[in-house]
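JOB MANIFEST
job_type = single_chain_structure
chain_count = 1
residues = 297
[input]
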Amino acid sequence: MAIRSMTGYARLRRSSPDGEVVLSIKGVNHRGLDIHFHLPPDFDPYEHSIRNVVRRLVSRGHLEIRASYKRNASDAEAQLNVPMLDGYVAAWRAAAERHGITAEPDLGTALRLPGMLGPGTDRDPEASLEKFLCQLTEDTVNELNIFREREGHDTLAVLLDRNAHIRAAVVKVRDIRTRAMPFFQARMRERLAELLNGTQLDPQRVVQEAAVLADRSDIGEEIARLEIHTEQLEKLLNAGGEVGKKLDFLLQEMNRETNTMLSKTNGIGEQGLTITETALGIKADVEKIREQSLNLE
């Protein structure tokens, strides 16, 4: 399955034996799947079935699902809301009597009130309406996913390009590290001299301290992990499917390795400054990938 964006829009219009339905779906970013319905009352019994169709085809995103329903003229037999009309007439006459007004209620005005006239409530809904709505929902979601896949394809190209920048930068840092090893070693000797300060220490303790200093100064491990992470990132993106949450974890790891690299390159001369500049560029690319990945399903 192709990588999808979480943003998109689709709208379909279909006719059923009872009338015309217009269904639209708008998707935006969300940590999970969040579905909001705006349906006419006639569709209330079918909301659960419509939801199940959407959940089968979409895994993440905030979805606004709206529908309008226009019954056919031959089916729109108006039925008078008698209790509502009785209440309207009674309220009119009570108000007229209270204020000493001689007048009769306007039936035309009353019939235009919302809810006064509507399709017969004793009329059974179309037997196949649920099936019709589920098929319309599936078709609309498929249209939405075409839009989302197109957006996802464009985002994928950006992410792969940024990942290539990171990989090239890591290669550059590895080369600089090789040339900067004398500076690393010199700094380690200085730190050991500070620790010894003319005192006699156990040789084993010196070896232990040297190992700790070497670990705190060398960025070889961070370089290796970043190389692995860039490979994992490329494979994840090219595999497609639902990658948003996996990308978030991987990018956190890449950011952590870059921060560690920056903390180890102070005070080692010009090479250290170059590593710092390159590592800051890596951090910028990781952040740009993270921003774009927030839009992926």
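[summary]
The two ends are 11 Å apart (CA to CA).
The beta strands are 8-15, 19-28, 33-38, 61-71, 78-80, 117-119.
exit_status = 0
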